[in-house]
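Minutes, project check-in
Item: structure for the 141-residue chain
Input as provided by the requester:
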Amino acid sequence: MTYVFDQDGFYVRLADRTLDNLPWLYKTRRKGHLLCLRLTELAAGLDPGTYAKLTQTPIRDGLLRLRFPRFLADVLSSTAVFGVKQILGALPYGHLATTLKVMIPLVCPDLAVCPARTEVLKTYASPALADQLKTIAAGTG
């Protein structure tokens, strides 16, 4: 899991940007786990059909239409995150869902008591996760 926890890596930088832009409401609600729950909900709620209908939409606008919070849509649509991709269709559905799930331990204030812990453990137990993480991180430039 060095791809996730590398201090200079893609996932840590993404988590840091997310936390830097996190509204105070997310820091206080649900004992600081509102972001963990929201990331889990967004990853699970990504509907491939709806996603496909928005493929020609600019990334930020598409994410907002997928009910992402504004701060997260801003972070994820930044060229510093997924490169110069302009439209949602350039960001594969699976990459977005995996990225959201993988970010949870990096933004969680206390994973031992996190209400999203079960989903995190399922994600990290996936044998194909390492290959997905390499592919996502390699395609960000």
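Outcome recorded: DSSP finds eleven helices and no strands in the chain.
No further action items on this chain.
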